[in-house]
Amino acid sequence: QVQLVESGGGLVQPGGSLRLSCAASGSILSIIAMGWYRQAPGKQRELVARITNRGATNYADSVKGRSTISRDNAKDTVYLQMNNLKPEDTAVYYCYAALDSYAGVNDYWGQGTQVTVSP
Known about the structure:
mainly beta; 4-stranded antiparallel beta sheet; 0% helix
């Protein structure tokens, strides 16, 4: 059983910052990639940022230059630092992990954490 537990969402004013965290736990053999997706009301879920087991990263154009994804391999944890937040960043943010466990290679999702950017 693999679990992803997210934290760090909340209400922030435009121009503010937030740091999201996601810790993977369970019968993990290796992590291939971790990342963050988001889904705003009425919109499809979209990639925000992703980091591979070799440290390669990619970002959505909408957050490039304002966000940094990083990871702590020893803790199987990924972080997303978001700066200069805008109202259009408001969404539920979901942690994602592609990993190998005793159940094979699968994708896993966290329960989601709300980020609201509003005055």
